Amino acid sequence: MNKTIEILKNRRSYRDFDENHVVSKEELQVILEAARQAPSWMNGQFYSIIVIQDKKLREQLVQWNPGNPHMLKSSVFLLFVGDLHRTKMVSEVHGSSYSLDESIEPIILATTDAALALENAVIASESLGLGSVVVGSIRKYGKEISQLLELPEYTFPLFGLSVGKPIVEMEVKPRLPESAVIHYDKYHPYSYLLIEQYNQTMEDFGEARETKAWSQKFADYFATAPSMVTDQLLQLQKLMK
To answer: What is the pTM of this model?
Structure first.
């Protein structure tokens, strides 16, 4: 197995980092360059990455997200932002209309590009002997974060990435059975038994953070009235009507 495949297959999330470990400027630059080389639709690169170095800013993020103290304790914290402000400037220079709120497509483009850049950053970090964890809960405070970091219109914070030197070893988390995820030529129905088996797999795995069966967790999640925080932010940033 080559080194790249080994890193991909053994990737796991780390949440406990050595607070004294310093990621060098050269290592950070490698991570950022790898992120920027991710695939992008039409080479649009509809995202920005904010390297949050100021301790007070990171402390504020943890105040809003107390369940993620690693945002402060990690060596590096990166914020990935869907960025359609750049192409707004392009449209203005070219005298073109810019009706982003007519379709969800631009939001999908920006989210996809940012996610691809994020994954490149994750793998680059792993290749340097570092660990990382993706932080999706920042969207709960998207409006506040946008104001804190002075994000312009047509941008929206998507997810963060804490990077550092792990101090607690983590096991590779089992994934859903392949036959429930991978399909050839068309979507193939599968037995719910596969999900029940996965519930048991995760129970046997015994991750302390999990207090419910996998299926119950998502049954509860999607039964709850959806938060409109992201919708409201997108409206505020002129990305949704």
So the answer is: 0.95
